[in-house]
Design brief:
Elements: H1 2-7, E1 8-9, E2 12-13, E3 15-18, H2 19-25, E4 36-40, E5 47-52, E6 55-60, H3 71-86, H4 91-104, H5 109-115, H6 121-129
Parallel strand pairs: 4-6
Antiparallel strand pairs: 1-2, 3-4, 5-6
Length: 137
Amino acid sequence: MAKYRYINRRGKVEGYYSGYTFANQVGVTSQVPVTIEIVSNEASAKVRDIKIKDQIIRLRKPKTTVTKENAKVLQFLDLLCEVERLSDESEDTISKRLRDIIKKQNIQKQDIDAYISLYPLKVYKNFYERELYDVFA
């Protein structure tokens, strides 16, 4: 229900899973979240919790309008912003999983360059300290 209302609305990409929800999906954490986190163009406030049936959903406003073209890169950068807080894996495992995400999602260097400036400095730091730019070589 939430996916069709906040992520894929009428066949158009409007958002994506984030936080522990996405971290669990990609194997950065084994924790299964009680609250589903979604970043969506449909969010009316910076952060708000809603309840659909018995599920709590934390909606967040995106840093820029989410489209089919940028959803995967924004989702990746959101993860990179919070990876230390979200992960229960070793640093090497985290870096490997982040590289795998870049490859599987077909994220390009120009995509990262286009949106990384919307994020805090720690995202740059995480990206370069983990040597994720090597994926593009």
